[in-house]
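Quick illustration, no need to memorize.
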Amino acid sequence: MGILADTVLAKGGSVAGVIPQKLVDREVAHHGLTELHVVPSMHERKAMMIDLADAFIALPGGFGTLEEICEVVTWTQLGLHGKAHGLLNVAGFYDSFLAFLDHAMAERFIAGAHRKTVVSEADPNRLLDALAQFSPVHTEKWGL
């Protein structure tokens, strides 16, 4: 995430970060961001990120990335927000995860309408275009 933040800043963009105090204490914080919100816990971090964001894009990552995008999707499913979310599927990174979602849908653990909310593209511009089609105004398109 630091490389992404540094690249955005170098190109003249702004970057807002949300980090729990424990990570600041471990000197993990990026102090060069446009905004840095320090919160007491990971739970408060995720809640603030959802409040601040217009949409969510998961880049290839590990457990934390997967957990956070799954929570965002779950909050959509529960009707707690209507913000777009998707996966930047670089070099097929998320292919197995998407196959798992399809399997869970086939086994009727995930509703088809909810599965459709997980947008995936390998090209960043196509992903942004797809996410632009998802909005609270258009959630009936997604069956929500």
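The chain has a mean pLDDT of 90.
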